[in-house]
Amino acid sequence: MLENLNFHFEFYDWLLVFMVTALGVFSAYTKDPQLKAVAATIPIPCGFAYIAVGLPMGTANAISGFMCLLYVHIVRILHYKVKVPIIPSIALGLAFFVALGTFLMPRIPDGEAFFIGACLFDFTVGVILFQKQKYKSGVRYKTPLPVYIKAPAIAGVVAGLMVIKRLMGGFCTSFPMMNSIVSYESRFSLGDQCRQLPLFLIAGPFMFAEMRYLEIFLHLNHWIVLLCGYVLFASIYWPLNKELKRRNEMADASYSDKNK
Fold first, then answer.
1. Which of 39, 27, 41 minimizes the C-alpha distance to 69?
2. Is 0.90 surpassed by the pTM of this model?
3. Which residues, in sequence order, are CB contacts of 134 under 8 Å at separation 6+?
4. What angle do CA 23, 89, 119 make, to 5 degrees?
5. CB 27 within 8 A of CB 182
6. Could you give the C-alpha distances from 104 to 99, 162, 202, in angstroms and in order?
7. What value, to the nearest 5°, has the Cα angle with vertex 43 and ends 37 and 49?
């Protein structure tokens, strides 16, 4: 098992560490809880992990998107319901993701039917949750720590998580590196992070499918494939994000009216 760990970082590994750290710092100093959640769900870390791993998009990528949803709800339930401190809650959520990912990785067939089925499953779950979930804006908060302390701390956490990158294979692209940072920075508003994940489940499958078939049929450079995936993802994600913000605001206004 030790030989599968990633102790020797390459250029793309360091690039991924830099990008996730930059997004983590953004989430730490942003007060808006929904913007923190956006930082956890835009696929910049996912895309750079795709470049770093060098594997084509497949069934594992689609399944890991759903596993991220499970991760954020595990952290929320442990911290809010079971009253486990936030850092152990995050650690347990990550342990669940790693354990399930390493169990499933050698057992998941990567044929087209399984890939499309996983994408459809993600999309269906995302739509149902987006329509059925309760809406409420979370607590505004930003870290009081100076950036020269916060940034190295985040970089250290991300570098530590990168060690198991190779062990996760295709699951690495949606490994909750960014979600784990945002879970800590959003510990007073974990509900926002949970409400944001359905947007990724709706937009992500379209990105995964486009990237897979551009690579398989057109044999395009990975960077071009990634750029095309980002454009398609953004065209779906941002309108949904505006709608999510509108629903949060409507729910807040309705709650205020009831309590006047």
1. 41
2. no
3. 251
4. 60
5. yes
6. 9, 19, 22
7. 125
Percentage with pLDDT > 70 across the chain: 88
| pLDDT tens sequence across 100-120 | 888 887 788 878 999 999 999
pLDDT one-digit tens code per residue, 138-195: 888 888 888 888 888 888 877 776 666 655 555 566 667 788 888 999 899 999 999 9
Residue whose C-alpha is closest to residue 193's, from 52, 1, 42: 42
User: 251 CB contacts (<8 Å, ≥6 apart)?
Assistant: 134, 135, 136, 137
Give the C-alpha separation, 177 to 90, whole Å: 11
Measured between alpha carbons, how far is 74 from 66 in angstroms, rounded to an integer? 13
84 residue type, one letter:
V
Q: What angle do CA 198, 122, 233 make, to 5 degrees?
A: 65
DSSP 118-178: HHHHHHHHHHHHHHHS-----------S-HHHHHHHHHHHHHHHHTTHHHHGGGGGG-THH
Q: Which two tokens stand for residue 218?
A: 């057109």
Residues in the chain: 260
- At which residue do the structure tokens 């759903």 appear? 66
Distances (CA, A) of 241 to 12, 46, 110, 157: 29, 18, 31, 28
